[in-house]
Design brief:
mainly alpha, 8% strand, Hypothetical Protein Ta1238, Chain: A, 2 domains, 229 residues, 52% helix, globular, two-stranded parallel ribbon
C-alpha cells in the first residue's frame, strides 16, 4: 500500500490547484490532507481495477525549488514577485479578511460573506488552471444586477453613497475595509493580466473581481441601512 504523508507532498513542490492522481488504496495521512487543502491541491484516487503506477513528479518539475521562486503552474517556476503570484497573495489576504469579518457579522451577512469566500476560491482555481470563469452570481443577483445595484444606491437603499465613519459600528467599518482590499486585489489583477499591448488576458477574472467589490459594497450598504436587496 502506498503512503502519502505531508513531507512527501511538500517534496513534490506541487503548485496550487494541481490535481494529483493517486493509486487506489493509497493511504493519505491527516497532516497530508490538511496540507493539500491549504495549498488547494486536489487528491484524486484512481479506479481500483488494473495496475496503477505511483504518483510521479510533473514533467519539468525540478528536484529542488530555489527559495526565491515558486510555481506559476505545474511546469513553470517564477520569481515570487511575479504579478500573478502577487495576485494570488492578494486573494489569500481577502480570504483571511473575510473570515475575520465574519466574526462580527449577523447570521444572514455571514452566509453572504461565505458566498464571497466561495467566489474567491473559484477565481483562484480559474487563474491557476487557466480555465474560463463564468459571470458571477451573488446574493441571488446576477452579474448585471450586482453592477446596477451599486450604481443606483438611492433606488436600492434610499440613501446616497455614505461616507464611512466609526459611528456606524464595528461590522460596517470591517466591511468598508474589506471593500478597499478587494479594490487592491482588483488592481493587482490588472497588473497580472494586462499584456504589453495593454490588452486584458483574463477579462473574466477582472469582471469577477469587480463584481466581488460590488457585492461587498452591497453588504456595507445593507449593514448601514438595515435594508436588504
Amino acid at each position: 500500500m502506498n503512503l502519502i504523508d505531508e513531507a512527501k507532498l511538500r517534496s513534490m513542490c506541487l503548485p496550487e490547484g494541481f490535481v494529483l492522481e493517486l493509486p487506489a488504496g493509497t493511504l493519505v495521512t491527516p497532516l497530508a490532507r490538511e496540507y493539500s487543502a491549504a495549498r488547494h491541491i486536489v487528491l484524486r484516487f484512481q479506479p481500483s481495477t488494473g495496475k496503477q503506477s505511483p504518483p510521479q513528479r510533473p514533467a519539468g518539475m525540478p528536484q529542488t525549488k530555489p527559495e526565491h521562486m515558486t510555481h506559476l503552474n505545474a511546469h513553470t517556476l517564477v520569481a515570487k514577485t511575479h504579478p500573478q503570484i502577487a495576485f494570488r497573495g492578494k486573494l489569500d489576504t481577502l480570504r483571511a479578511l473575510l473570515l475575520q469579518t465574519e466574526l462580527s457579522a449577523p447570521e444572514r451577512a455571514r452566509h453572504r460573506l461565505e458566498e464571497c469566500h466561495t467566489l474567491i476560491g473559484e477565481i483562484l482555481t480559474a487563474e491557476v488552471t487557466g480555465t474560463p470563469l463564468p459571470p458571477p452570481t451573488l446574493f441571488g443577483l446576477d452579474d448585471a444586477q450586482l453592477r446596477e445595484t451599486t450604481h443606483h444606491v438611492e433606488e436600492a437603499f434610499g440613501i446616497s453613497h455614505p461616507l464611512p465613519s466609526a459611528e456606524m459600528g464595528a461590522f460596517p467599518v470591517a466591511l468598508n475595509y474589506l471593500r478597499t482590499q478587494v479594490r487592491e486585489a482588483e488592481l493587482s489583477a490588472m497588473h497580472a493580466f494586462t499584456d504589453k499591448d495593454g490588452e486584458l488576458t483574463r477579462a473574466d477574472i477582472l469582471r469577477s473581481m469587480n463584481r466581488l467589490s460590488s457585492a461587498v459594497y452591497i453588504l456595507f450598504l445593507e449593514a448601514v441601512t438595515g435594508r436588504e436587496v
